[in-house]
Every structure is written in structure tokens, then in C-alpha cells.
Amino acid sequence: MPRFLKRGMDAGAIKAADAKVRETVEGILTQVEERKDTAIRELSERFDNWSPADFKLSPADIERAIAQVPKRDLEDIKFAQAQVRNFAQKQRDTMQDLEVETLPASCSATSTSR
């Protein structure tokens, strides 16, 4: 007889969890839109317990952070970036500018005939 160590959520529970996530994200986006940096600071404290004097990193800070990332992880990140960039460029290349004259030049939107 099979023994389950863990069972997945049923469809109703998944739908409810997805709705809760959506509601949370929409609330965060609204806060950031309305309260800008103040909301960012509060959210950073709430989710990350992180409240630096300035959120903008200096080039030296960035280099120190990158130096802490294992070489293999950094290579994987660079590979993923290249894949995303390549796909986006290929997708963009399929788009073409479109210019359409919706009314002949001889027609005027402010016609004076009665």
C-alpha cells in the first residue's frame, strides 16, 4: 500500500493561495506607487530586516557583492542573462514599425460643407 509523506494542495487551496499572493503583490505595488521611497524602506525592513542609510550602492559596494558570489553561480547568472537578452532581441526583431494613413490627405477632420 502506498504511503504518502506529503500531499499537494487541492485545486481550491491552490486557487486561494494564488489569490492571496496576487492581493499581496498588488498591495505592495500600490504602496510603492503612492508612497515611493518611504514604502520601499518600510518593505525592506519588513521583509529583509534591512534598512541601510542609502539604497543606492556605490561601484565598490557592487564589486564587493559580486566578489562574494561563487564563480559557478556568477557564470550561471551571466549565461541566463545572455539567454534572456538574446530571446528579447530576437523577439524585438520580429516587430516592425507600422505607419498607416487612416484618412486620405484630401479629407479634413474639420470639414466646412453643410
Features:
114 residues, mainly alpha, 3 helices, extended
Structure description:
By secondary structure, the chain is mainly α. It contains three helices and no strands. The protein has helices at residues 11-48, 59-67, 71-93. The longest helix is centred in the first third of the chain and has 38 residues, at 11-48. The termini are far apart.
Protein structure class: mainly alpha
Strand fraction equals under 5%
Query: What spatial form do the alpha-carbon principal axes imply?
Result: extended
Number of strands: 0
As residue ranges, the low-confidence spans are none
| Number of alpha- plus pi-helical segments | 3
The helix/strand series, from N terminus to C terminus, equals HHH
User: Which radius of gyration do the C-alpha atoms yield?
Assistant: 26 Å
- Share of helix among residues? 55-70%
Mean pLDDT: 91
- Main sheet summary: none
Distance from N terminus to C terminus (CA atoms, Å) equals: 88 Å
In brief, what are we looking at here?
It contains three helices and no strands. By secondary structure, the protein is mostly helical.
What is this structure's SSE topology?
Elements: H1 11-48, H2 59-67, H3 71-93
